[in-house]
Design goal:
Helices cover 31% and strands 28% of the residues. It has 149 residues and is α/β, with parallel strands linked by helices. Strand 2 and strand 3 (70-72) form a beta hairpin.
Amino acid sequence: MDTLRISVTELDSYRHWENDEPWMSTEALVAQLSGRGEPTDKMLAGTAFHEQLENLQDHECLDDFERNGLLFKVNLTGELFLPRVQEIKTEKAYEFGGTKVTLVGKADAVYGKHVFDHKLTETFDAEKYTDSLQWRAYLVLFDADRFTY
């Protein structure tokens, strides 16, 4: 039986591409799915931001910082909750028409049955993520009942 591994991110990238959103070209999607894609500037910035979050100590403020050659200006108007359980990977196997599919996801943080995904953006637009498969997949993968971007 054939086996296919697909990440939550890849699944959502395909959804964006399939819906004709001007988010990713066919060539970029194929490169990503085949593991040949080069990280974009936004991906590199997201990686640097996540590294900073992962290294914060208890009660430490997230202030302006530099990481991986990038300068981040932080302007938080609220409190940022960072659970201790971070970067948790899980997977779940399914079968579709004789093909085994393993869905893989790595949550930025988990707190009980609550999954978190940190997004790096100047302004957060919740509507952009409403139709996402990402949050739905994480709820299933982590048997969670709450998801926060």
